[in-house]
Design goal:
This protein has 284 residues and is mostly helical. It has one domain. It is built from 14 helices and 4 strands. Strands 1-2 form a two-stranded antiparallel sheet. Strands 3-4 form a two-stranded antiparallel sheet. α7 crosses α8 and α9 packs antiparallel against α14. It is globular. It starts with a helix and ends with a helix.
């Protein structure tokens, strides 16, 4: 029971953190409306630090396109990110035809906060030793190594998507994960408040309108996501559509997907430590 409550509190902490990031932030919410966009920015920062460490090519649009396979979509997104001052471009030192993409301070700090949050969660559920999250904020060298190591996390995303189709369904919709987080936050909050088993469906007093307002989305979009989720058995409504329940199958899958992500991030910590040891050995 104690482990169940620890997990439920970790999910509440996670969902509140993610939702708070986008509350009232229409531009940022639009820029990172889909998971693909977040992963593209993650790959950019990883390439930036690999290049800085002399372990990779300069981060250019062509490099990112070769990693993602999304050419026009990525080019348009990079343009939007530049307009939002999340990144800039500089002349390539050896290739005049290309520009080097440089992540801006806002993007770097946002990633650092995101990683710190997830490592804190991994510590909470005992996947990482205490202290890793604080180290990420206090030790710049460790932060850069961890970012480089986190390519392991991004590379595992396709496997996680394949294993968890209901969770992946939310990812495929604009702001879908945030909608899922809003529902999970309501579920676990009620379970903790009333001492209910966290793996069983409970009636959620949440509406598409309230979710839309918090996430700065249209009511029709959230309603369409709710309806699609109901068709897949992710949730059910009552006859008057005043309450909804998340299915036990989805609650289990969401938990497994969450643990799979944090486990991958714990593995990235081990790889970051190995990178640090390699650098120390080279310095001798």
């Amino acid at each position: 029971m104690e482990d169940e409550q620890v997990y439920a509190r970790a999910v509440l902490q996670h969902t509140e953190h993610v939702l708070q990031m986008f509350t009232g932030q229409r531009l940022i919410s639009k820029v990172f409306a889909k998971v693909f966009q977040s992963h593209a920015m993650g790959r950019l920062v990883i390439a930036h630090y690999d290049w800085k460490a002399g372990a990779g090519a300069a981060p250019t649009l062509a490099l990112l396109q070769s990693k993602t396979g999304c050419h026009r979509t990525l080019a348009a997104f990079v343009g939007i990110a530049k307009a939002a001052r999340l990144l800039t471009s500089e002349p390539h030192p050896t290739d005049r035809r290309n520009k080097v993409l440089v992540p801006g301070p806002r993007l770097i700090q946002g990633l650092r906060d995101w990683l710190h949050h997830h490592l804190s969660l991994a510590e909470t559920i005992r996947l990482l030793p205490i202290g890793c999250a604080c180290r990420l904020l206090e030790d710049d060298d460790y932060f850069e190594r961890y970012v480089r190591a986190s390519i392991l996390v991004i590379d595992r995303i396709p496997e996680i998507r394949q294993r968890f189709p209901m969770w992946n369904w939310f990812e495929e919709h604009e702001c879908g994960l945030r909608i899922a987080y809003a529902l999970l936050r309501s579920h676990y909050g009620l379970c903790l408040e009333h001492g209910l088993p966290i793996h069983c469906p409970v009636a959620l007093d949440v509406s598409g309108g309230s979710v839309a307002q918090r996430l700065s989305l249209s009511k029709s979009h959230v309603r369409n996501v709710f309806n699609g989720a109901e068709q897949l058995g992710i949730l059910t409504h009552d006859d008057r559509r005043r309450s909804l329940w998340l299915s036990a199958a989805f609650l289990d899958e969401a938990r497994q997907a969450f643990l799979a992500l944090l486990s991958a991030m714990a593995l990235a910590h081990e790889h970051a430590e190995a990178l640090g040891q390699e650098e120390a050995n080279l310095a001798v």
